[in-house]
Amino acid sequence: MYRASKYQKDDKDFIYSFIEHHPFATFVLNGERLLATHIPILLEGEVSGWRLFSHIANHNEQLKYLKEGAEALVIFQGANAYISSSWYKEKDISTWDYSAVHVNAKIKLQTAEELENSLKELVSKFEKKQDKPLYYDNIPRKMLDEHLPLITGFWLEPYKVEGIAKLHQAYPKHDIEEVTKHLLSSEDTMKNDLGQAIKKENNIK
Question: From the record, what ranges are coiled-coil (predicted)?
């Protein structure tokens, strides 16, 4: 991933937290051509050491290339938006602010037991926030037995991890304040999130 030095974010805490808060990722494999699937990919482990896990449908074209030891690229992306230079005090060039984490990893296929445990973790992570959560073990066993043979689970063992946060670092304070004002006043929640990220990165109150 191209990263200007001032935007590099390789801090372990940043990487772990970013993946934790942006689990819907782009999963890329190299087949006869580059193939990508958009799926939730979760963490297992702690800041000091972790791996990722997920699953794909067996009718997914990627399955043919989902092999033990194969290389994958996982892209996690945060809030992003166009930044108009009309918001600056002086004329300048418009840009796009964003943040992302790229993980190069080796694939390790899951056993049937590991797949079920991963699914329980996946469902629990998102169901626990619901008013009346429906956990994995509450789903009829017959339904699970019909669906489990249709998916393949896998681990992703990272060997290269890169983070980036292009959040108007090194811009004049006045311009940063104007940028965040416009983003936070938008009805677009992604722009709101980006505005908050820019304020935090640049210590703007």
Answer: 105-132
